[in-house]
């Protein structure tokens, strides 16, 4: 088994920890914010987990081991949610959310800017770049529309 598979599992566990933080903290704000955050993370996680599964297969894991390891990284999300709930201040959820949501949002923005934007800038075909930018704007629009309802 290659070390890249284990590094991917570690990164996925940390990623799931921050997702758990975001989901729990957003439900501390309101049910609506919690559902919106959960939907956004689920839409992000489906292709992400499929990609991670492929990375594990390429690293030498068999299908069953890769699936078990992927499931084990989900414990990071449970730990993150538990941490957010346990970190809730006796003065109310406002103090907890005041640092958790900006922390997780900043992490998501950092990942997007570091991973997606350089690929967009290196794209040779302007049509592909335009499609990606339009899809990015569509995603932002959907989230704005959902937050207004």
**What is the average of the pLDDT values?**
84
The total tally of domains equals: 1
Shape: flat
Structural Rg: 17 Å
Number of helices: 5
Secondary-structure element order, as H and E? HHHHH
- The CA-CA distance between the termini, in Å, is 48 Å
Question: Percent of residues in beta strands?
Answer: under 5%
Count of DSSP E strands?
A: 0
Secondary structure class reads mainly alpha
Give the low-pLDDT segments: none
Q: Helicity level, as a percent range? A: over 70%
Largest sheet: none
Pfam family, one: Zip
Subcellular location: Membrane
Catalytic activity: Zn(2+)(in) = Zn(2+)(out)
Family: Belongs to the ZIP transporter (TC 2.A.5) family.
Explain the overall architecture.
It is a multi-pass membrane protein. Belongs to the ZIP transporter (TC 2.A.5) family. This is Zinc transporter ZIP13. It is found in: Membrane. It comes from Syrrhaptes paradoxus (Pallas's sandgrouse). With 149 residues, this protein is mainly α. It has one domain. 89% of the residues lie in helices and 0% in strands. The protein contains five helices and no strands. It has helices spanning 3-29, 31-58, 63-86, 93-122, 126-148. Helix 1 (3-29) packs antiparallel against helix 2 (31-58), helix 1 (3-29) packs across helix 4 (93-122) and helix 2 runs antiparallel to helix 3. The chain is flat. The model has no long low-confidence stretch (mean pLDDT 84).
Keywords:
149 residues; mainly alpha; 0% strand
């Amino acid at each position: 088994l290659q070390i890249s598979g284990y590094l991917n599992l570690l990164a996925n566990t940390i990623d799931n920890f921050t997702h758990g933080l975001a989901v729990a903290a957003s439900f501390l704000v309101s049910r609506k914010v919690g559902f919106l955050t959960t939907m956004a993370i689920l839409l992000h996680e489906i292709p992400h987990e499929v990609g991670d599964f492929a990375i594990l297969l390429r690293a030498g894991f068999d299908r069953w081991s890769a699936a078990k390891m992927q499931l084990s990284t989900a414990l990071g999300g449970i730990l993150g949610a538990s941490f957010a709930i346990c970190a809730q201040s006796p003065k109310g959820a406002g103090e907890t959310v005041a640092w958790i949501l900006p922390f997780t949002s900043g992490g998501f923005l950092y990942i997007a800017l570091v991973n997606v934007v350089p690929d967009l800038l290196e794209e040779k075909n302007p049509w592909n770049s335009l499609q990606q930018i339009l899809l990015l704007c569509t995603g932002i629009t959907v989230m704005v529309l959902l937050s207004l309802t």
